[in-house]
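Before relying on records like the one below, remember that each one covers exactly one chain. Contacts with other chains, cofactors or solvent are not represented anywhere in the record.
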Amino acid sequence: MRRLVLVILALPVFAFAAELEGQIKLVVDGKPLRAEEATDAVVYFRPAEVPTTGFPVVEYTMSTKDKQFEPHILPILVGNTVRFPNEDTILHNAFSSSRGNTFDVGLYTEGEGKTVTFSKPGYVRVYCNVHHAMIGHLLVLDTPYFTRPDKNGHFKLEGLPEQAGDLVVWHDRSKPWHVKTTPGEAAAYEITLDLNLRRISPHKNKFGKPYGNKNAGY
């Protein structure tokens, strides 16, 4: 109980009773996708004054399974840690060259894997140095107010401070959707994202060189 009280007292004095909600639809070339595909999106609210203390300490997980990163898209809070376990019986090598959050866990076999702490907010593309077609997406956020849409494409952010800020919807295959808003004052949003970006952007291996062949590791 004492720890909880300390966390609450450390946060700025705002009313934390407001909400933001909406509905997300995905389209490709003007054609709608199934509603459940919106679950890959990340929705976050960044108030003008973001709390700087009292953030929860969490160890997130991004597994390698069936030659894929799971989950494919993972939002995390800045300063927290991600573990990269291997659920395959083959070797993997998770790495990223993203500015501010560069890492390389090295080759690892089946098991619990290593952890990486992300100290800078931003978008982190995660690749495998063994399998060039593997890609994962980490969204390192400096706000604790984030969520994922449900299988119907609906989202709701609760317990928000009643102050102006930025509402953002992020998806790896679309430009971010963004609006200035104040929780408690806005109606529900109807949002359409056009997935017009490539699933896997061209990239080099962890040494900054092309992969050995088109189907490396497969």
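The first helix runs from residue 2 to 10.
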